């Protein structure tokens, strides 16, 4: 990659791919704001009816767009079960002492379990770094969960994993959300979260990794 994650790194079937061409390389922050933080939802998307959709895995076994209208009735009522049987594309089991929890990779839910109750769903789990999962995605998931629980309102929520070419590990995920009843007054974001781990060099084609000796 050069100074930017260029549009050529994104799937051509994403309608707004051209808007992502200026996403800079990771520079120490877990995410970057896209499109002035405004999601790409259409007016016709807004509804108080709950729904959730998960794209079929592609020919390489990779996840696609996960999209839901989050509400209290969609949220789980029981503790999360095991997901260890799921092996997302590019999955590797590797540890580094300097990584929180030691494991480099997590099975990252595109739509978090606390929002949808979807757990061992292979269409909703990607190979993501611990850093992306906890520092990048989780704060946004918590924001949406807290809002829904506090207000009883709904939030349109879409997460798109972005893969470069035939890579098995995503460069990151595009996270969009907007509160429905007030059209984004309380919840509105559109961010690209980097699938990186500080001090680790990742081969996104295979998922293999090594200590970044340039750090």
UniProtKB/TrEMBL annotation:
The keyword Nuclease applies. InterPro entries: DNA/RNA_non-sp_Endonuclease_sf, Endonuclea_NS_2. Keywords: Endonuclease, Hydrolase, Nuclease. Residues 53-178 form the Type VII secretion system protein EssD-like domain. The keyword Hydrolase applies. GO terms for molecular function: endonuclease activity. This is DNA/RNA non-specific endonuclease. It comes from Allocoprobacillus halotolerans.
């Amino acid at each position: 990659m050069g100074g930017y994650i260029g549009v050529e790194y994104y799937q051509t079937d994403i309608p707004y791919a051209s808007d992502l061409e200026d996403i800079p390389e990771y520079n120490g922050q877990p995410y970057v704001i896209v499109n002035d933080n405004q999601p790409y939802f259409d007016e016709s998307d807004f509804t108080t009816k709950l729904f959730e959709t998960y794209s079929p895995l592609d020919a390489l076994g990779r996840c696609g767009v996960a999209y839901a209208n989050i509400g209290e009735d969609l949220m789980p009522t029981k503790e999360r079960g095991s997901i260890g049987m799921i092996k997302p594309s590019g999955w590797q089991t590797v540890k580094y002492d300097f990584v929180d929890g030691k494991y480099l990779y997590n099975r990252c839910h595109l739509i978090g379990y606390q929002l949808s109750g979807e757990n061992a769903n292979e269409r909703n789990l990607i190979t993501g770094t611990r850093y992306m999962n906890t520092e990048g995605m989780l704060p946004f998931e918590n924001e949406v969960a807290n809002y829904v629980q506090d207000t009883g309102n709904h939030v349109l929520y879409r997460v798109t994993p972005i893969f470069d070419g035939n890579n098995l590990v995503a460069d990151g995920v595009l996270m969009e959300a907007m509160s429905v009843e007030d059209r984004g007054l309380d919840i509105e974001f559109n961010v690209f979260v980097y699938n990186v781990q500080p001090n680790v060099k990742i081969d996104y084609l295979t998922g293999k990794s090594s200590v970044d000796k340039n750090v």
